[in-house]
Structures are given as C-alpha cells and as structure tokens.
Amino acid sequence: MYFSVHVLAGAAAASYASTFYTALPVGLVTHALLDMVPHHDYGSIPPGVIDGLVGLLALALFAMGPRPVTAWGAAGGGIPDLEVFLGYFNLVKRQWFPTHNGLLPHPQRSFWPGLWLQLLVAGLSAARLLGLFLPRSL
Length: 138
Ligand SMILES: [Zn+2]
Description:
mainly alpha
C-alpha cells in the first residue's frame, strides 16, 4: 500500500490513542492490516518520491497539529516502508516487517483495481482526522 495512505491510516487510528506508547503500535498494526488487503504498489522511483513527500508532509502536519499523538501513529504506519525504500536501493539485505518478508500475505493488484481501496482508506482516514465523523474518543 502507498506510504502516504499508511501514514494517514496510522494517524487516524492513533487519533483514538492518548500516548506514544499506544499510538506507535497502533500505527504499526494498521500497516500490517492494510498490507494484507489486495492493493497496488508502484514499482518505480518517481511515484515513490511523490508518495514519500506527500506522506512526510502529512506526518509533519500531524506533528504540528492539535493532537501530536497522531504523528506517532502516522510514524508507526509509515516506518515499515522505510525498509522497502532502503531495499529498493540495496541498502538493506533483508526485510523484517512480516508483510514485507512473506511471513504475512501482501497481495498485489494492478493499478485501477488496487487503487480504489487505497482511496477509500485515505478518504475515511482524512475524514476521521478532520473530525467529520466518529467521536474523538470511544
Ligand atoms: Zn508495507
């Protein structure tokens, strides 16, 4: 799944958290869960650069926003893709995250079939973060 979608989903899930200790693991869990849903992953550098910049910008905005704990969830959601980025340049020899090393499934789809779910996740996450639905605390 795209890095920026992982960042948004991690932040949205962590919006229910109150501390770093829960927000970061929640973000990591969202990464694993979303990777296990059939999706599209790009395989070249230009979309990766754009996606990375969008995700990092979102992460910075969460850190400066009214609920900085969401930045920890965003970081947890995005951090696992750091090994994918480094692996693309052969800077790491092994993938450790379970959906990246084959321990858990990571099903792929072509662009259009694999894009719609990511748009849905991004939209729901953005809506959550904008406070358009669901209470801030359960
Ligand atoms: Zn991943």
